[in-house]
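Q:
My hope is that you can spare some time for a protein that puzzles me. I hope you can help me see how the letters and the tokens relate. Thank you; the sequence and its tokens follow:
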Amino acid sequence: MATARESTGRNVSNVPARRHPAVLFLRKLARKRLGMGGAVVVLLLILVAVFAEQIAPYPFQERNVRNRLQPPSAEYWLGTDQIGRDVLSRLIVGSRLSLLVGLGATLLGVVTSLFLGTLSGFVGGKLDMTIQRFVDAAMTIPDLLVLLTMLTIFGRGLLQFILVIGIWGAIGGSRTIRSAVIAIKENVYFESARAAGSPVSRTLLRHVVPNLMPLVIIGFTGGIGYNILTAAGLSFLGFGLDVGTPDWGSMLSREGRAYMESAWWLAMWPGLLLTIAIFSFNMFGDALRDLLDPRLRGANVR
């Protein structure tokens, strides 16, 4: 008996302790080098945007005409613009606007597409047909034309940017949510819940929405980069915020395009930051998709 107890004790002591799901997730993410690198860059961009005023070496509106169009140097690391403002400080402050638009518009779009897609796929019938015909008609119109028209009507501002980009982007995303809801309705547990008399709200909250969360998280991380690029494109076309407010798209359009030949740094740095930010968000989103999508969870994706 003592031998059996000792053997049982040794077996119990050799059982490894269960790790927290967050720790396991981070370990799996660390195996994907591009995804982990994208996550690090995304975290750095968020920190820079939050502490922009403390990090910026100069006030972003400070002018020094004597030092106008200075190339990168020890005093001005990324050079100065046509009226002597520090480019690095303006890029740091501009990151806050780009991330606000990207995060705000994506969050609004994900919530709206989740509502429309769940409503359409869960209810079905005439309501589903009406919503999908509206989605079909909306997807035939070029996005740029709609965004420019809506910004012309409602004016230019941070709130207008977030509302226009977020709501219009949710129309196409609702179709993906609808398809996932229809697939969930065909599962056995969903039919069992309905047969047991479960209320509609309980069925949605316990069986539909939780199964949509991986898809929602993937869509959120993947949509941030796209919305940042969309906002930069609108600013480049002259539909950005006020002239005194720095953002990466307007810096490319105003200073960068006007002085491209004589001051290359005015166009290079905003374009480079846009590229790095969008690439990082996309790589992070792809890594999350590989880890959260049930169809890819067991795949050996390198």
